[in-house]
Amino acid sequence: MGKPVVGEVVVLPFPQTNLQAGKRRPALVVADLSGADLVLCQITSQARSDGYSVALLGADFERGRLAVDSVVRPNRLFTVEESVVLYAAGKVKDAKLQEVKAKIRQLFT
Question: For residue range 25-70, what is the model confidence (pLDDT) as tens digits?
Fold first, then answer.
């Protein structure tokens, strides 16, 4: 697999709080940094109403999809090396990506 692009939903193993290997979880690529690093945004199937969460439905994908409707959490950003990514589950439509990026910008204003 090549380096994921901005807007792709990727799946990777999230570590547990005790640093043990965790479950495979989806995340949205929101920035492609130089080298092998990516900035990702957490995706969860657990409903959140924290003022930042963005619904992610099947209709929000231009290709692929997730098994269940989910929520993107723009207030949960993290950086990983592309080698950690297991596979791409799909790519969101540009309108959904822009909605998530707008919520990220709200964090810093």
Answer: 999 999 999 999 999 999 999 876 788 899 999 999 999 999 999 9
Residue 42's CB: how many other CB atoms inside 10 A?
20
Contact call for residues 9 and 41 (beta carbons, < 8 A) = no
Mean pLDDT of 62-86: 94
Neighbouring CB atoms inside 10 A of 62's CB total: 13
Task: Give all domains of the chain, ordered by start, each with its CATH number.
Answer: 8-107 (2.30.30.110)
